[in-house]
Structure formats: C-alpha cells, structure tokens
Design a protein that fits this description.
Blueprint (H helix, E strand, L loop, with lengths): L5 E3 L10 H8 L15 H5 L5 H7 L2 H10 L22 E9 L4 E9 L2 E7 L11 H10 L9 E2 L2 E2 L2 H12 L6 E6 L5 H13 L3 E5 L6 H11 L4 E4 L6 E5 L13 H7 L9 E6 L4 H5 L2 E4 L2 H15 L10 H17 L3 E5 L4 H14 L4 E7 L6 H12 L3 E7 L3 H4 L3 H8 L4 E5 L12 E2 L10 E6 L2 E5 L12 H8 L6 H11 L4 H7 L1 E3 L17 H9 L7 E7 L12 H4 L8 E2 L4 E3 L1 H7 L3 E3 L5 E10 L2 E9 L7 E6 L27 E14 L1 E2 L14 E3 H6 L2 H4 L4 E4 L2 E4 L19 E6 L8 H10 L6 H5 L8 E8 L3 H9 L10 H9 L6 E7 L8 H5 L5 E3 L5 E3 L9 H5 L6 E2 L35 E2 L5 H14 L11 H5 L5 E5 L6 H6 L4 E2 L11 E4 L1 E3 L2
Parallel strand pairs: 7-8, 7-15, 10-11, 10-13, 11-12, 15-16, 16-17, 21-27, 23-26, 30-43, 33-42
Antiparallel strand pairs: 1-34, 2-3, 3-4, 5-6, 5-17, 9-14, 18-19, 19-20, 21-28, 22-29, 23-27, 24-25, 25-26, 25-28, 31-32, 33-40, 34-35, 36-37, 38-39, 41-42
Helix pairs in contact: 5-25, 7-17, 8-13, 11-12, 11-13, 11-20, 13-20, 14-16
Amino acid sequence: MATTKKYWKSTAQLDDSNKMVKDLEQNEFASDIPTEEFLGNDQAMEESNTSRRDFLKYVGFSTAAASLAACEGPVIYSVPYVNQPEQIIPGMANYYATTIANGYDYASVLVKTREGRPIKIESNRDAAFRGNANARVHASVLSLYDNNRLKTPMIKGVESTWEELDQQVAAQLAQLNGKELVVLAQTYASPSMSKIIAQLKDTYSNVRVVTYDTVSEDAALNAFEAKYGNRALADYDFTNAETIVSVGADFVGDWQGGGFDKGYGKSRVPKNGKMSHHIQYEANLTLSGANADKRYPVTPTEQKLILAALYSKVVGGGANVSLSDKVAKSVDQTAISLKRAGKNGVLLCGIPDQAAQQLTIAINEALNSSIIDTASPIMTRQGDRKSVDQLVSDMSAGKVGALFIAGVNPLYSYNDSDAFAKALENVALSVSFASSMDATAAKVDYVATTPHYLESWADTEIKKGYVFLTQPTINTIFKTRQLQETLLKWSGNEQSYKDFLKETTSSAGASWNQSLQDGFYTTTASDVKVTEGEVKEISNAAALSALANAQKPSGYELTLYTKTGLGDGSMANNPWLQELPDPITRTTWDNYVTISQADAGTVGVVNENVANGALDGTHVIVTLDGVERKFPALIQPGQAAGTIGIALGYGQTAGIQEEMQTGINAYPFYKKGVAVQAVTVKDAGGNHQFACTQLQNTMMGRDIIRETDLATYRKGNKDDFNPMPEVSLNHIGTPVTSPDVDLWDSFDRSVGHHFNMSIDLNSCTGCGACVIACHAENNVPVVGKSEVRKSRDMHWLRIDRYYSSTDSFEADEDKKDGFDGLFGDNGSLGGFGELEIPADNPEVSFMPVMCQHCNHAPCETVCPVAASSHGRQGQNHMAYNRCVGTRYCANNCPYKVRRFNWFLYNGNDEFDYHMNNDLGRMVINPDVTVRSRGVMEKCSLCIQMTQMTILEAKKDGRMIKDGEFATACSNACSNGAITFGDINDKESEIFEVKKQDRMYHLLEEVGTDPNVMYQIKVRNI
C-alpha cells in the first residue's frame, strides 16, 4: 500500500502548536525585507521595517536606470596568444585523466580545462576501481585557486628561493652525526615514492619513515595485517549483496576512505523483485544508517556486545552477552539473515578495536562472503599511530636530527599537539612540505612549498595491482616544487620526477602514453612498502571474551566522525565545502555536539527556531582526561541515548582565511587515534546561531516522498504503492493526467530533443556530490554563514532530508495491537511512550530537488517581463537581462527551487570567497553567465552541456548516442540515482525509466507536468 507515514524535517514540526512553523509554511518572507541595503546603510538594513510596496518603489525601473547611468563600466583587458598551443582551441574544453591522493581522498578523475584552466572535476568512469568522485573531490579544483596558498619556499617564516633552501638543508643534513632522519608522511601508496625513499636511505644511512593517517584505521589495519600479512584494508563490492550488516561502520560515507557507495547504490534498486537488505547498528545517525532498511541506535559498548553475539550465532563460541530485548531479537534475526545470504552476505565493522575487527574477518570467512576482497586490498591507509607516538618520544629525547613532514599537519591534528610542538624544538632540522602556512608549517625551520595535485605528477596504488597516475593539468601557478622532486634532489639524483615516474611505470610493464591517457595501469608486481614490524593476531576466543565482557564507561560515549563536506579538514579553506549542508543535520559552516532528545533534557540542552526559521542552540562543555572544549549542541533525532558525536576537521586558524575559520577542533579528543572515547558533558548555556537549512524551502507537508515496502512492490499492483493523484471533476475523482482537467494547451513536443531527468530515491544516498558539481559547472556563488541563516543560500540543487515516523492511525493501531503485557520493550508502558517520541529513531529519506522544468510552468505565466519562458527541448529558461527581480515566479513555484540573487557576489569583498579576486575567478566556467544582483536564478538542466553535445554531433555529422546527454549532477552521481536524456529517443534509458511503475512526479496533483520525475523509494523491511 502507499505510505501513510508523517514526514518531517525538524522536531519543531512535530509540535502542532508551534506558531513559528505555521508562519514559515504560510509566509513567503518570515521577516521584513531589508530594502535599506539598496540605499547603502548596513545598520538600517538590519533594523528595517520597510514594506514590500516601498521596496518595489526603490528598485523600480526609473531608479534602476538612474543607478546604471551613474555607474562606470569595468575595463577588461584581453591578452592574445603570441603562440597558441596546438591542443587548445578557444571555446572548446580539454579533458585530462588524473588522480587525487591527498592522504584522505583517493580517486581517479577527469579534469575539464578551458583555455588551460582546470575548472571542473568529473569521475573517471573507465577506472575499474575508485573512479567515482565525492563532494570533496569535486570541490578540490577550487583549492587550486586558493589565494592563501604559499607562493614561494619559506626559510624561518620569510619568503626565499629554492637555491637557498636547498643549500641550507643540504648543509644541515651533512651534520646529522648519526641521528635519525625521519619522514613523517601521509599514506602515499606510491611505487615511485617507495623507490625515492629507498634512494634517500642509500644517501643517508639512518632514515625512518613514519606513516601518519590523520583519521586512523589502526584497528582494522592491525587485524588485516595479522591475518593476511599485508598492512592494508579489505575492499568491498556491494553490487550483488543480499544482506549487508554494519556495526558502527559508515561505509556509505567516509569509512576506510569511502568509495563503496557506487556498488551499494546498485544493490538498492529492486530488480526482479530483489534488492539488498541493509541492517545498521550505530550511535550517531550516519549516511549508512539513514539509508538502512533497519537501523538500531546503540552505544559503542553495545556494538561490541552485538558483534560478540553475532559471532556466536554465525561462527559459534557461546558468548553470553546482555542486551535489551529489542536489540537481542534484532541480533537473532540479523544472524539468520546473514546465514541465509551466505556468500552474498557481508558484515562490516567500524569499532576501533582489533579484537572486533578480527571477529568480523572470521564471520565473513564463515559466510564465505564474495562481497569482500582480501586478495587485492585497498592500499590507501597504512598509518600506525603507535609509531607516531614513539616518534614524539624520540624527538623529545633528542634522537631525531632531522624531520621531514609531508602531507600531514600534526600540530593541528595530533591529539597532543602541545607535546608534539615541544618535542619539535629538540629537532635541529625541520622541514614541512606544505602548500599553506598551516599550524605545522608555521613552527618548522623550512617550508618546501608544494603544488596542488592538479599541478603535479604522481602514481598511487589505490588497490593492490591497480596503479593510478597523476598528471599536471596546468603549469605551476606559484614557485612550488613537488615533494618527490625535492627528495630526489636531496638524495643526489638530478633526474626530473616526471622522467623518474615514467621509468617506474615502464618497469612495471605498462605503456606510459596509454596509462597516462587512461589514468591508470594494472601490475602484478607491487613496490608499495607497508609499515615494518609484525602485528600479533589475537585468538578468536580471546577476542570474543574481550568483546563479551565490555563494560559501559561512566558518563557519555563520544563517537568522533568526519563530515561529508570537510572530511579530515585538509580542505577547510574551501568555501564550497563549508557551505555544503550536512546530509543529516542540514547544517553548514559548523561542527557541534550531536545529542539525543532524551539526553538533551538531562543535560539542559535547548534548540529552538527563531522567527525567521533559523536554528539557535545552547552550548555544552565536553571533557576528556582534563581536556575541555566548549561546543554548540544540536539535538539529533536518532542519536543513541548515552552517546554524543562530534565532527573532526574544524577549528583550524593557521593558514585559513578568516571566513573559513569555523567550528571547534575536536582532534584533542582523538586520543591514540581512537574514534570512541568516554567523556563527560555538562551544560554551558549561552546561545549559538546555526546556519541550518532544514526548515528552509519547505513544501508544506504535501505528498512529496513516496515509499513502499518490497513485499507490496513485488505484487506489482501500481495502484497499491504508487497511485495516480486525482482531482475532482464534477464531483468525480479524475486522474490529474487526464486532458479533461488540464488547463493548458500543449504544443507538439515530439519533434527534436526533449529532455527529461529521473531521480531514483532508492539509489540516492544524500552524499552531496551533485550539489558541488552543480556549483562548479554553473558558477553558483557562496554567500556565507550569515546569509545562509537568512535562507539566502544560492544552491541550485538541494537535497532535502526528511524524517518519517509511525505517525499514522494504521501504524499506531498495528503497534498497539502488538503490545504484550505492561513491561519490556514490547509492553504497553514502554510502547505508548515510544509512540510519543518519534524522534528516537526516525527513518530517513533523501530527495534531490532542483527546478522541475515544468511543461505547464506556473513561473512562466506570472513573469511580467517574460524572463522565464519554456523551450522546445523541455528546459525552463531564465533570461537574466530581462529579469527585474519581482520574484513572482518564486511565489508561484510549488517546489521552491528559485533563488533570488540579493547581492553582487562577483568581485565583492563583502563575500570574500572565490569570486572577489582574480585567482579565484579562474575557476569560473565561461559557458555560464556570472549573475549580477537582483535577478532570479535556478537550475537550467545544464543547457550549455546539452547544446554542446548537439553541436559536437552536428560537426561530426552523426546521431547522438544514448548517454551522451548529461548534466553536472547526472555526471557526478556515481550511484546511478540520476538519469538524464532525450525522452523522444525511444531506445534511451530515460524512456525506459519513465515507463517504470515506480515513476511519479513531484506534486503531480498541481498539474505542472514536470520534466523531472522520481522513482519511489522501496524499503526491504
């Protein structure tokens, strides 16, 4: 049957008496329009009570004309090519295959360049592994044009030259006198880097490499090394998975480097009546939990008990654990589901404990799981936190004569950064290979300034046997030099790193030119050096005993995590990522403590929405072993009681632009690189202003998300799970698609191209890659925290996150009928209480929403100057030069997808992000207009891309193949959630998708006839 659940974005919407929510649903503008800004008075803007009528007077045609007449047009100087490069054709894009490997994100990508400028990142779909770019990878192109990057090498904090730096470093290296030269570096997983380190060791006899992963995977690495003799991580392909069980692993997010969502998305689409069944046990509400069929909020301690119980039921062992009735029953069902799936089942574990990771390996071996790949593991995490701790001790003892720091920032990310800084003072020679004056670079003697990866050569063995190449897509913008080039030089090798890399590739039996074109090559010989030293394997019996006897600590259990936007914080200076709403909380520009509703009442945490819908909250003080930090607190539905969560990656100041110095540094709580810690939490009062989008652009509780269960879907009766909305015609229910109730006269759309887009709610994980891709392709401006808080974000594409709860008569009756007795999880006393607290464990749905490009568009009929019009290809157009900013179109749009451009973001120091300096503006796509203030803007279905495809086919004199038409968001979606194409092509994928029973249009009862369709979400419950 069709869903009858209640959907909500915020707990405030569960309160029927909440006046603020009602006001937001009924009023276009929740607060007065600050029209005094147009008169140049910032203070008056904040205090304005000017009416809408007065506003229109101020910006009427006569005033606008007078203002334009008084302005002097900018002078733009064009510099022609003296000798135009052969490969560059003005107006045409070039693409280069390359690889990002920054220590946290690893992916094979294509880089779009225009006139020699990289402007866009695309996934490399030819790559067999890790060819999908996440939101951070898409945003990494903007970091190339960061004006805060170092521009020369630095000596003692002063700009210098490479000649002088080389001379001084060489002189000090010659005076090591037997002390160690230590290279503290990220995981490079690079065959050529391994050879360079070998040469460095030949030149300087006492060289040690310490690998430091900012976000540690030590427990999993230790377990894998103990079992398989290789310091690496298992790979997973969920494409054919039947049962996926995760205990504390956010594998849809950043767990173990991420990249698993592509196969996961495929497994979630019902085919032939089958789809994967996903069960999640976790403390924080993560992307994995949000996409799960069954989710159980449990503490990290309970996760250990659950894993012990699963081991006993799947492998055997007889562990006696104490779990609540509800969780114990779920574990029984989960074990049955895993054993039934057999080789198509898999267990994932995110518990930072070697015993837990070893039992996970044992369970997967017992299942003979084909989902897991241990023969060709992932090589991108090889860190060892114990060796980092030992390095700090050795530095303090004066054993280290020289320290090279590459790709990491320990004075920010090491949990005891003060101890590291103090130990660093005992090192005679310290060199940081960094691209910005970060906290570590500011404290060392020398900074050997490194380029961006888009200016670099490299190789990376992301997966054993698969080496991915990095090539420069632009000449170095500043006087920078690669780490590898510098180490070769300091080792006495004058060969260029490019030639060295070419030799390394050829020695592996690969063709250099072909590998460079493809972006990767395969090899049977692996030169990657893993961490030295053996890890002892714990017996399964000992591991089981340790987990079964886990005791809950006093206070709260903290789970540290990384956000989809900022990750480990290495790209904190990127405004696209700062303004990307978190998929779960919908909050930007911040990190915070996530806490459950029940614990919030105990601690005294309060969240409230103010008059304009913005979210405010109080603070808490979190304490661990004497370390205190004050954080804002956000009440998170689905957070396990007795736990809190904090995102890493925030709180940087050194080398960070002031506007991007956001949040609080949580790394001091990352003790020994373990993400779970026992902490105390107390109320700190105060008031924090969140920039949260969860109540913005609400669609007033209409039939938006459609869901059904797999059993109903299997029956095949579309009217049961996807009924067509009806309207009344002469008091008779009539399908909204009937011509008898259509108020529009349609034209013939069968001639030429007609574009449609389909969004599969089953495949969409809410990852946000499409949002960043849209920013890059369409020059969408960043507006900053204060403007987002006023609902003025400019995202052309948003991903709405809806919570749902059993808030319907049918569901409530079913629940009440199932009560048994008074007490227990299924007793009426606890059961009725659960009915009253839907925020304890809500189901979550994600819905990407952009302009629906309606064939019967309400916006077009109300525009007084015909700025909004419809094209024959199905796209709703915006003529910016015509738009006078009346915003009638936004009022009349039922989908709330239009954005009013309040300010001039380009070249405006008030919005100091990337459009106000010449370097930052190099990322701008010349095919898309940079909009000025006072106009409406919205999704165009990337008309510049569709027209380029048509023109290319015309030049070649050929028909367009299915799959050639694309938009920025459809290209970015590696999960296959977004399908785009020509609906008039009867052989196209989009034509087939439109015929599916799961297809529906958003708010179809309004009669807008959109060209964007959705596939209803099917849950395998």
